[in-house]
Design goal:
Oligomer: single chain
Largest sheet: 4 strands, antiparallel
Strand order of the largest sheet: 1-4-2-3
Shape: globular
Radius of gyration: 17 Å
Length: about 170
Amino acid sequence: MIAFSKIRHDALTLVILAIPACTWRDDGYSYSTYENQQNQRYLGRLSSNPYDPESVSNPYGRYGSKYSPTSINNPYGTYGNPYSAKSVTNPYTLGGPRIVAQDGTYLGRLNSNPYDPESVSNPYGRYGSRYGPDSVNNPYGRYGSRYSSESPRNPYATRPPVIVDDK
């Protein structure tokens, strides 16, 4: 009985500690605001924060779940299927969702084509280079640094970029 009580207490403590991280929201783009104003489909935040409800790294969230139709992690969905023209995993596509910073700066296409000039996977392109000012791969730049509040690599970022696609 004592062991069960200890486990229950630890689980309750974990839930209480996780609630503020799960319910946190900032004044940046949200699903309804971005989709209605821009006539584009909002696909979540490009963030490494697994507790942000809009992060693509949250396996239980709408945009990070491998079962969600709007997730880039769904291997059978439009945005995760390697054979879809809008997929982030299709190495031959010239399309795919776009990455947009919270201030509206275009940060390239989220696809795995290393020859696409707008892809973040092209190491020689503007958006995939380690030295590009608008690249999420630049470890010293505003959108790629582990310490920037606007970088998807920072799990504590307050203004990570968003992923959008045309309707």
